[in-house]
Amino acid sequence: MSYNEVLYAVDRGVATVTLNRPDRLNAWTPAMGRELREAMEEAREDKLVRAIVLTGAGRGFCAGADMASLSAISSRGETGKAAFSPVDPAGRDDFKHPMTWLPAIDKPIIAAVNGPAAGLGLALLLFCDLRFAAEGAKFVTAFSKRGLIAEHGTSWMLTRLVGHSRALDLMYSSRAVGADEAYRIGLVDRVAGDAVAEAQSYARDLAETVSPRSTRIIKRQLWNGLLENLAASMAEADREMAISLTCEDFKEGVAHFLERRPPRFTGA
Questions:
Q1: Which mean pLDDT values do the consecutive 10-residue runs of the chain (268 residues) have?
Q2: What CATH number does residue 49 fall under?
Q3: Which residue range is the domain that position 221 belongs to?
Q4: Do 51 and 132 sit in the same domain of this protein?
Q5: E strands within 158-201?
C-alpha cells in the first residue's frame, strides 16, 4: 500500500511507521490520521510483523494538529469530530475512538519520540504501549494555550502514567517537559541518543525472542486491566493460562529452553 503523509517499512519482524510532514514538524492532518490507521492495520495483518515502532520524520514527532485545520474549524464553528470505525468491532467500547484505538492493535507499539510532541501528538504517544525519547525531545500538552480542554483521552491516560497532580500541572500550564523530566515522572520509559534506533532494537528483540501469541494476550490483559477490577483480571488470566498451556508457542517455549537454542515461535 502506498502512503503520502506516513512512511511504512518492515525489517526483521519490525514495522516502522513514520509520520511524514517534516517541514511542519509532522503536524497532524485528517489525511495523516487516515494513513496512520491504514499503516497500523497493515502491520497488524502482516504475520511477519511482530512489533511496531511509531516515530516522526525530521526534527519532530508530531507538533499537534495542523494550525490551518484548527483555524478552519474555528472559523466554521465545527466540533472537529467525524465518524470513526473501530479496529475491533467486538472489542471494548473504550478502544473505539480516535487515539484510543491504538490499544486495539494487537501487537506491541513503541513510540520513538525524536523531537517535539505537542497536543494531539502527545495524545497519540500516550496510547502507545511504550515510549522511548531522544535526549532533545520535548513534550507539551498545549490544550490550555489554545483555549481547548484535555481531549482525546489525555486526561485519563496521562493521569495513569504520571499521577493526578503531575497531570494537572502539565495540563494547566502547558509547559514544555524535556526528556529527562519526562523519564523521571514516568511519561517515557527510556531516554536515548537515538530513540528510533533504540526502539527498533527493542522491537527486534521482541520479534526474535518472545512469543507473538503471548504479547498479543498480555497487551489485551494489561490494557483491559486499567478498566477492570482484580476479580475480572484474575478470571481472564485463569482462562487465558488454560488456553496457553495447549498452544504450540508454549510447547516451543519449553523446548527451546531445554534444548538451549533460539526460539522458533509461530504465534500459534
A1: 95 98 96 97 97 98 84 52 78 90 97 97 97 98 93 95 98 97 98 98 98 98 96 97 97 96 94
A2: 3.90.226.10
A3: 211-259
A4: yes
A5: 177-178, 190-192
